[in-house]
Amino acid sequence: MYDTTDRRRRFAEAAREERPDLALLCLLVGAEADAELGEAGVDAAQIELDRLAGLLPFAPGSPQAWASATAALLGEECGFHGTPADYRRLDSSLLHEVLRRRRGLPILLSVVWLEVARRAGAPVYGVALPGHFVVGFGDPTGAHALVDPFDGGRPLTDEDAGLLVAGATGAPLSPALLAPAEPLEIVLRVLNNIRAWAAARPERTDVQLWAVELSLLLPSHPARLRYERGQLLVQRGDFRGGAAEMERYADIVAAMEPSSAESVRRQARSARALLN
């Protein structure tokens, strides 16, 4: 079993590798949520991804052939897919639980597809469409095939992807939206989903806090997460720690947003006053 310090150290180190291990990072996120998921559990999940990869046919051929073979295995034979109810469950954002339940959010199901297909040698990549993560096979700027793991691997045309984008944003699909998502982008989006899940549940500030703190360990992250962490610490009774975090955020934004920085500093002073 990992302790908090060891988990955070390992997560930070993994995030700074030249080629970050997406599965490992997602499993270390899961270890924050599940205190029983130690090193043996992380290894078991990696072994399961290896096992699934070994069930894929060897070099099926075209992007469409890879997509079809992966859908036949993961979507049909193994039953990986999502339902609307999965959006209400924290474990839908935890890779080890998605491997166990074979249910999850689009992005976690996509992580399963990415990691299984990658291990089998597929030209596979994640596509971070607004509101709905999907998977691509082949060349993103040339011959490619898109699939929706949340729907069991349903094939998507670029027009289908455009409808997903329009439904989420009202804007048309741009080529940039079909570009491969980097592992750290995917991890940050996973953590954003967890933060959103917890923010809707005021009794789960513990979850929101660790999701913010892991996000802050990534090499690139929104500065405003420091302000969110400060607010959470104050909500949880750590007035001194919360005030200090708000002041650090104010220092970061002072040059560009002096009025916002002063507002945050006032909040920090109010938090410190609660110590009296």
Description of the structure:
- With 276 residues, the chain is of the alpha+beta class.
- 58% of the residues lie in helices and 8% in strands.
- The protein contains twelve helices and four strands, in the order ααααααββββαααααα.
- It has a four-stranded antiparallel β-sheet with strand order 1-2-3-4.
- β2 and β3 (144-148) form a beta hairpin.
- α3 (39-54) packs across α6.
- It starts with a helix and ends with a helix.
- The model has no long low-confidence stretch (mean pLDDT 94).
Feature tags:
4-stranded antiparallel sheet, 276 residues, alpha+beta, 4 strands, 8% strand, 12 helices, 58% helix
How many E strands? 4
Secondary-structure element sequence? HHHHHHEEEEHHHHHH
Q: In order across it, which strands form the biggest sheet?
A: 1-2-3-4
Distance between the termini: 39 Å
Give the CA-based shape: globular
Strand content: 5-15%
Q: Name the structural class.
A: alpha+beta
Helices, by number, come to 12
Helix percentage range: 55-70%
User: Biggest sheet, in brief?
Assistant: 4 strands, antiparallel
* Cα-based radius of gyration, to the nearest Å: 20 Å
Average pLDDT works out at 94
Show unreliable segments.
none
